[in-house]
Structures are given as structure tokens and as C-alpha cells.
Amino acid sequence: MEIFGIPTQALFGQLLIGLINGSFYALLSLGLAVIFGLLNIINFTHGAQYMMGAFVAYLLLNKAGLGYWWALLLAPIIVGFTGVLIERFMLKRLYNLDHLYGLLLTFGVALIIQGLFRNEYGASGLPYQMPAQLTGGINLGFMFLPNYRAWVIVASLIVCLSTWFVIERTKLGSYLRAATENPQLVQSFGINVPRMITLTYGFGVGLAALAGVMAAPIYQVSPQMGADLIIVVFAVVVIGGMGSIMGSIITGFGLGLIEGLTKVFYPEASNTVIFVIMAIVLLFKPAGLFGTQK
User: Fold this and answer.
1) What is the mean pLDDT of each run of 10 residues along the chain (294 residues)?
2) Of residues 84, 240, 217, the one with CA closest to residue 155
3) Reduced to 3 states, what is the DSSP secondary structure of residue 146?
């Protein structure tokens, strides 16, 4: 069976790959949106922290014998704690300066982290074992759906929507949003705003690490795995709207699907289609599809 002259299995296979890529785009851009939207920090270290999440999962398995499920819990905490240290000892000193200084600092930190891991583990990828509970797949008739890929998509959706709900629909989220507008007022209610800012940054970094753990069984664990991806994720954030939580989620999954379809109908443009869309969006809506002009 064919659709538009394309075999059904090939079409749906690329859509599945697009959804998987979109899951990682959404998780990573969500972390960036949380950090920028609530803290006004452009975190260029995000790709390196995504890579660190994958490496923590790899080391937990090979050094401590802790498998995938433990890594899902521990890696975001461990990498998130490194994010807390970066915020407390580096970024905190730059809050009164232009955003460009924070971008340059996080870019430099990202290069240092990638260099350290490359010197220790080399540039080639390291395999990470898929959890036994998620091996195999389901034959849907028109395509074969691997269980692990389905898990990545569903888990990413749950994490993204839960984060959106906490930030947009709970009292904690209202405190976070108020702290970005008027920290003195929020502090007068007895809330420790600096600690809230630090934990929020750590949470955004933890989302990147979570994405890294989920990516480890699909892609090989490599020091360079976040270097190219972070450029695409920044484009996703710009298209969705800097700081827009729901914009990052919708745009991440949507652009993953568009990229997958482009690989079917016009493969030559698959590596640039997201950047073409970004250029068009910036021309007609500079604040992004879901962003608001400040």
C-alpha cells in the first residue's frame, strides 16, 4: 500500500522517527524555556548537560550495576546538582549584567564539559543496553512499533505536560512566575527567592539529563551527542517563543514530525527545514508562535 507514491511502512516509519526526535526536542526545549522564561538565562550548557545525563546512566550501569530505571531517577538529580553549582557559583554573579554574558559563560562551560568527557572517553560512541522490559515491539499492521520508542514518546509527553501544569496551574508555579517580575515582593511573603531560582535552574538542567538517559539506548553515548542537537533545540525554542512552556512542547513535537515528513518527500532539505521555518517565523512573528513581545 502506498500514500502519495510512498510505501506506507516507510512513511509511518519516518513519522515515528520524527515523533522520537520531537520527544527529545520537546524535553530539551522545555528545560531551556523554563530556565529562560523564569530566570532570563540563555543556557548554552544544555546540550552538554543532556550528554552528561547519558553518561551518568552509562556509568551507573557499568560502575555501580544500576540499570535504566535507576538512571532515570538518579541522573536528573546528579546532573541537576551540577547545574545548581553552576548557578550558585557562576551565573549568580552575572544577573545584573546583559544576557550576553550569561550566554558566553554557559557556552564556555559547555565546551569545557565536552572537552573533559572527550579526553576521558574518546570521540566514538559507547553502547547502552536497552531495559529488558521494553525490548520487542508491536506489529500494527502498517508498521512495527518498538516498545522502547513508544515508551520514549509517552514518557516525554507526560513529563512535558506535568511540567506545564505545575508552572502554569499551581501555586508554586505562580510564585516562580511572580519572582521573575518582582522578586522583592515575593521575598516579602517569606519566600527564599534565591533558593527558588537555584532550584528552578537545577530542575531545567535535570530535564536535559532525563532526555539524555532516554536517548542513551537509542543513540550511542558520546561526548558530542549534545553539540549538534542543542543548535536545533535553540531553533525550536525560538520558533515556539522564548520562555513559552506550551510553545516549546507543541513546537518540539510538531517540528519533529515535519522533519520526519521532509525526510520522506524531500530528504535533501531534512537537515535545514527547521532553520528555514525559524527564519520565516522570525520574519513575521519575531516573538515566536506562542511567545509575547516584551
Assistant:
1) 66 88 94 83 92 97 94 97 94 84 92 95 90 90 86 96 92 82 80 88 95 94 90 92 89 94 89 94 92 64
2) 217
3) strand
Q: Fill in the DSSP letter of residue 126.
A: B
The dihedral formed by the CA atoms of 21, 22, 28 and 31, expressed in degrees to the nearest 10: -160
Domain ranges of the chain: 2-284
- Give the containing element (helix H, strand E) for 2: strand 2-3
Give me the CATH code for the 2-284 domain, please: 1.10.3470
- Start-to-end Cα distance in the chain: 50
Percentages (nearest 5) of helix, strand, coil residues in the chain = 70, 5, 25
Distances (CA, A) of 209 to 193, 203, 227, 256: 24, 10, 14, 20
DSSP-derived 3-state class of residue 145: strand
